[in-house]
Amino acid sequence: YLDFVPPHFLAIGVLPILLGVTMWLQFKLNPAPMDPTQQQIFAIMPWVMMFVMAPFASGLQLYWVTSNILTILQQWWLYKKYGLHFSDTHPATA
Q: Three-state SS across 24-65?
């Protein structure tokens, strides 16, 4: 018998945490936004979505996590194929 009740710590399970982490990685691989407001939204949104998606069905969360992982792999493959580096899409700020 397996108990699939979410843990009491933060009242969320593993899938919402994976969703937040994969969304954060996906945003990090995308080109850096120029607008400071957009940068703040991209920094906060993955962690907010982690709690927003916690009560949703696990199938939806699994779909979103899988989609994020495939997008991360695709972006990594394109960067590798065309010789781009993370620093090319994220210029250093002074």
A: HHHHHHCCCCCCHHHHHHHHHHHHHHHHHCCCCCHHHHHHHH
The alpha carbon of 35 is separated from its chain's Cα centroid by a whole number of angstroms, namely: 20
Predicted TM-score of the model (pTM): 0.71
pLDDT tens for each residue of 21-56: 999 999 888 777 678 888 888 889 999 998 888 888
Q: Cα(16)–Cα(61) distance, rounded to whole angstroms? A: 7
Other residues' Cβ atoms within 10 Å of the Cβ of residue 3? 4
Cα 27 to chain centroid, rounded: 6
